[in-house]
Fold these 3 entries.
Entry 1:
Amino acid sequence: MTVTLRRTTSISAVVALVAGLLAGGAVASGGAAAAVAPTALASEHTLAVSGDGVGVYPSTAPLDPDVERFAITTTEATTGTVTVAAANSRPGGRVFVDGVRLTGPSRTITGLEEGDEISVIFVDSASAAPEVHSLIYLPAGFPALSAADIAAGPEPLGDGHVMLTLGKWVTPSPFFETAVDRNGVPVMVTAQTASMDLKSVAPGRYSVFRPTATAGRTGYDQLDLDSSFRVIGRHRTVGLENTDGHDVIVRPDGSRYLMAYEPDDATGNTDAVIQHIAADGTTVLFEWDSKDHVDPAAEGVATGTQMEKDYAHINSFQVMDDGDLLVSFRHLSSVLKIARVAHDGHAAGDVVWRFGGRLSDFAFTDLDGHADGGPCAQHTAQQLANGHILVFDNGAGAGGKLCIDPADPTGPVVARTPSRVTEWSYDAVSGVATMVWNYSVPSRYALFAGSAQRLANGNTVIGWASSVEAMASEVSPTGALLWDLKDTGTPAYFTYRAQLTDVPDAVRPVVALGASIDGASYRQDDVAYAHFSCTDRGGSSLQKCSGTVPEGTLLDTRNVGTHSVVVTAKDGAGNTTTRTATYRVVGAYRPDLAARSSTSSWRGVGYYAPTPQSLPLTVRRTPGSRTVLVHVTNRGSRTDGVALRGEASTAWWRISYRYGGRDVTRAVTGGTFRVTGLKPGATITVAMTVTRTSASANGSERGLTLTTTSLARPALVDRFVVRALARP
């Protein structure tokens, strides 16, 4: 087999040449208008999703109340539009889609983008807690994943989500960066042209490699991502042509280790370079170049002119407990310990020992006590907490032999399959490495890429890479398969690596205020409804979308003034968003009482305070009476009727009222005076005459209260007081 490796990352070059070794075939298509038919469960909640090219996993038929999140697979024909059908046949049963009550059998949602979530919440009187589900809209082409949770006994799965970079590699395809739950449903997903090595590097911080677009550079840029997976930093090697995307180490001080597949024009080889770069991104703290420490002729295991030129093929590194670097080289079939600083007679950059390969410093013994060739074309070599070394050991097929023959370490390389995950104890003094744990599946052989991660509970998460029979697995310390994730399409997507990590939801829900409550204006007694919605895309699913006025119910338009509706959205991680909307109610009915005398201007116009305005009125012995003009104006926006009530006569004061030339005293004082059909802005005028009787003494005073009332809204009242004062 001849493999060409030059000025590009080697994985892509290898894949292009070995595509025929992997399963081929037509790409599975979602078809048109795929749908999941609702099927009633005992819970009597049903859910279905339909649309052009749409599929759903896990199945919603029947709806499992314990599965919170479902994925919507799409094609280019889906164009962001799906229809959600749901029903709740329980007593008092209701369904809310994105916080809006579903009043019909379904709702069509448009404008969806990759990673958007549709919330579906079932509420009924029979249950104290709502049943919450989320539907995640996936980018076009994202595969339908199938997960087998085999853990049924005392060996639980590790906590967290599995981070993947999915691509077909052997055929053109988008790449997907994603973190998925144990059903393979993403909590985060984005489509890229290419992507490698998505992983957590610190709490709430992630890293990924994407192809560089910088002129004069090859390979990838290493991107720092924040807790919401937004790009917050971009990094490359310093003074080199290439930055490789196989691995990165981000240190707590902000410095980082990057690697490069650097072309050497003098030799024609591709050298493996490691740089430790300070947090400023420009200062190189340490640099190691394979050309200074590796003899390709003596150590290389790759055959064929071009693979021999890529004689090292670095693919993982780790800072060990003692500060040295543990570095994996596929084309040496060896893991090297490299001195980071001078110690024990080694200068910085020296190879302290070789774990495997033609010049291995260790002899290997397998679980049965037989001689073993050690690592072969391996990836992700790691030192464990117990000091052992864990290796995703790819092995090699007959078409590209890369493995050391334990009987003849410096002789011809051999084939060895399937791929395996091995844990080794070792003694650097005696040079003995002993296999203490091994996991393999006879049918699984990853020609390239792959990963192994030891969890705190002792389980191991495996990324199977180009062994497309499975995408990722979790196995117990006893070797029991606990969980398997697959893409059943052909050719299948696979992931460069798989990492189980905590992916906390750092995205707050979004509250959308409807036009009915946000800045709206209504006339009194208008019929209006509260409309708002909530969405969330952080991965923990929307749990609550509630307002001080329930969504879809009547707004209070009885009272004039500014009203508010407070809407709160909350997700499963406790992230909360609260927004306040205000709407205004203008007076549809607003009687306004004002008065003036011959010596005063109008008082009380537009005044509605609880304490009425007043008009002082001096009444002298001669002529003995005065007249006050009283206006009642309809200040509302609708035709209304008004009532007017006034004080009656006493022994000291005689009061009379005239309207339209008629004496209406009895009606006004008896509370029966009414005028109907008063249009907005229209006014009636009543003349009130105040007369002193012979019994009134100088200095006597009386407050004469006038009251007008809306006939449509009797609670709307305006008052005015005429203060009559007797003077000589």
Entry 2:
Amino acid sequence: MVSAGAHRSDLIAQDILGYLREHEQKDLLRFLTCGSVDDGKSTLIGRLLHDSKMIYEDQLAAVEADSATVGSVGGDLDLALLMDGLKAEREQGITIDVAYRYFSTARRKFIIADTPGHEQYTRNMVTGASNCQLAIILIDARNGVRPQTKRHSYIASLLGIKHIVVAINKMDLVDYSKDRYEEIRDHYMECGERLGITDPFFIPMSALRGDWVVEPGENMDWFEGPPLMDYLETVPIVADQNLEDLRLPVQLVSRPDLDFRGYAGTVASGVVRPGDEVLVLPSGKTSHVDRIVTFDGDLELAGPGMAVSITLTEDLDVSRGDMLVHPANPPARSHDVDAMIVWMAEQELVPGKEYLVRQSNRTSTGAVSSVQHRVDINTLETEPAPTLELNEIGRCTVTLDQEILYDPYRRNRHTGAFILIDRLTNATLAAGMITEDETGWTATPDEHLTRHLSEITGNEREARYGQKAVTILLTGLTGAGKSTIATALERRLFDRGRSTVRLDGENLRLGISKDLGFSSQERSENLRRASEVARLVNDQGLICIMAMVAPKEHVRDMARDLVGPDRFVEVHLDAPIEVCRARDTSGLYAAADRGSIPQFPGVTATYDIPANADLVLDTVDNDIPTCVNRIVEYLVERGDLNPRRTSAE
């Protein structure tokens, strides 16, 4: 039996069905304990369970018996033995593998993951942390912040764990010193800022003695915060869910009879209701939700974590592996992604070697095409690396044979995570978190900076120049004619009395972007810099012409948003890759074929053909003057070239 008071609910004795309904409605918090070796992780969990009356009596008796033979706290009860169940763990007094415990209180249900502290078991820690919402970073008050503390904090941040508790443990061994607690707290804050951990919750405690774990205790009355258990019961986690981006991977097509076709799956994020328009990916077909079916009946709404079957108003070809999303905010699509990879195998990563890539509910073949850098966990600095070895973390580019649907991991854990699997042994080799390769796009300027506005209005500039400010992005494969047409367009507009600025991708790389290479991330940054310049140019009333490959559609969309959708024109210069190769006089395609230029769109990386370009020009059937004429005509139709300036034309 469980010790009295385990769930602290009178209903369990009076109304068992009512108790079960109450229990089902509690939210669930998954959390892990991590930190350096011997910081007291297993002891802390044991103390949480013991003082909360969450231990079965036979378990407690077994721990009491084992404490006398393999315990590490003298003759006292060794609560760490509750978690360290492996023989090797008990013999050595360490945690080797992840151990899980489940319990509940009157307020909330919990799943605890006790993860190893040794560096050699970093992969186990990643496994335990992958589904957690909160991490307890333990620090031995005698030792302070250690390298493994930083390592686990970095991994927790990398895995997108938003709630960090820094438990400064073993305060009984430093005489419950407030000064020592504040010293460690300030040191961790300095490290945490570099890791992106902005608001951790600090708490002093003694897991062995029970101070500030479940009850406040009498030894640190200077601490004004709540005990750890109170914090775990009240930390807000509902707001952590992504309710904006509907992602419903189809796991099964259900056909119990001729009159029913349902698409079953678990809602990964977002909310769906009957009547909602949904887009089926990758096919691109649209329909509307007819019903949301569950075992207990139809629902009016389904959200994250709910297993449902969706029926549609139209019969579409929807298969296992497809995804239902809202048309307004689909996921990104690509054959290659940038990701932070934690390598978990004894053998080192081999760039170019084919692995199985399992992401969401789809499995494809892929390879790590390049390792961009490796992270030194101790200094948090990046360093060049040809490969990754056991427990190392690095930023890599992964290229797949099938297009995947994904979101950045920090936005959506389900669609932003993947694992690499050995094709022969079926062993899991690595865990990957797809990154936002647009760090500069989303960066927040310093709060002390102020944008200084001009006293000259846009209307005044339009009247002066006889034109509206607009940015024209010419995008296409290398050799499609971007630079040639951009130069001719500049000439045409200048001869007609217009004021322009031309931003050529190659020219940018000789100056403002000379520090950038050609990875997906660096191409994104190159377009961001050009777009920032284009916005400034437009603010001055000038027309900006950008000639850039810009291979990723979602990055081009961000450029449109940055410049302003009303003054952005995307022109796709369409030419078959065979024609582009024939036009190439610089030998770029040949170099890409040899592997000298990694991630070259059209050869070793994909080019996302614009789905919603404002203008598409076939540069094979149309010569340069014709293409320029089409662009000018389009600008006139938009009203960007003011017809009042006839004297200059």
Entry 3:
Amino acid sequence: MAIKKAKMVLDKDYKMAAVDERIYGSFIEHLGRAVYDGIYQPGHPLSDEKGFRKDVMELVKELQVPIIRYPGGNFVSNFFWEDSVGPVAERPKRLELAWRSLEKNEVGLNEFVGWTREVNSDVMMAVNLGTRGIADACNILEYCNHPGGTKYSDLRIRHGFKEPHNIKTWCLGNEMDGSWQIGHKTMEEYGRLAEETAKAMKLIDPGIELVSCGSSAYDMPTFPKWEAVTLSYTYDYVEYISMHQYYGNRNDDSLDFLAMSDDMDQFIRTVIATCDYVKAKKRSKKNINISFDEWNVWFHSNAADDDITKNHPWQVAPPMLEDIYTFEDALLVGLMLITLLKHADRVKMACLAQLINVIAPIITEADGGGAWKQTIFYPFMHASRYGRGVVLLPVIHTTKHDTAKHEAVSDMEAVAVCNEEKEEVTIFAVNRTLTEDVELTADLRSFEGYELIEHIVLEHEDLKAVNGYGFEGVAPRKVKQCTMSDGILTGILHKASWNVIRLGKKIRIIKEKD
């Protein structure tokens, strides 16, 4: 078998940006079995006294998710937050228009805030700018963050929450450029509404950070004009603009599928350029950063989802968007994580969409069964666990290939993160060729005294291999495919593989072993 070659040079002084830990965020929407039969299942033998699944909590903790977007997604554009608080027995059931389901409001705002604290996370809250507007956004912010002595803060206290929730990150609506969105707006309509909503919210709590809606995908017909126009209104009042993107291997072309992270890279670059164009036009000194608050692979369940919404509407928690992920899906998720890290100077938040059951790394079996890890669980876990610190600017030379729709695709895609506190460097790398191994040579001589800690690999002969309850067809393992001598790392990255290569200061490694 032929072996291709890749070279990487890493220098500890060539720093690109610190990683904001919120880049490893996720997302839970009132959609399908994400909430009911996902995080919440009263009567399940593994649920706590509040009805939340303890086994699911442990898996979420394993992923170390610092922030979770809530309650949508499309759901938020017809969300009446008042229905989700107060005594559960008094909460109304509502027709949920985005996904044509029945929302019973057993789990609402306060319960979700409590759950996020149990899993060591914060909330990224979204407000309804579809069917509602400025006043309702101000009311929910007052309910969540104001200490007391006002209508809505006192209402929260009466509901049993004396201390404010202090939610500091707020999304100004969701995908308002999309015709599918309840209350879809033109770019001028959304820009004005978001601007005035942002101004009012910051009068209530000047310490919050706000996310203005960007385009719902790279191929939206209004992209990137949507960003340029809406930011012309919101620029002075928001900190972030959102990005959303999903990919799928609909043509069953795996080589081209693994090149789609290049599209994500171009999407990010174009949004940054558009933000900076508005910055220049406004003569501003402020950068708008990116909240990539929906990203994942999503296509396996599309036909089943269409059948439920069209032919079997108004169910409570129907099994929707339950993609069962393959090994090649995990590779693309790894490539997307690498892409986000390569833009850590401007991508400050990101949310793997979603977290439980709905296009998710964690699945719970129906009818009271257990929980298990999908293939995509592992690259996300590795990046969240080992990808905190400072992204280095690597010099990479690698051979390339063409695919059906992409040219000059790098055989090896990689990024490196230095954790100075732990005295560790982690290289994340994907060999995205399907037939040939890549021989990697990495120059780390500036990291004097560093040695190889471990090389973790996720690989499988079958690109379509999946995991399931009680079995893991795709799981990481430690290998001995790398060596290090005099600051030079050499190793083999097998065809179609996700690789985590961890290095650390020799004295630190000895202490850890002792």
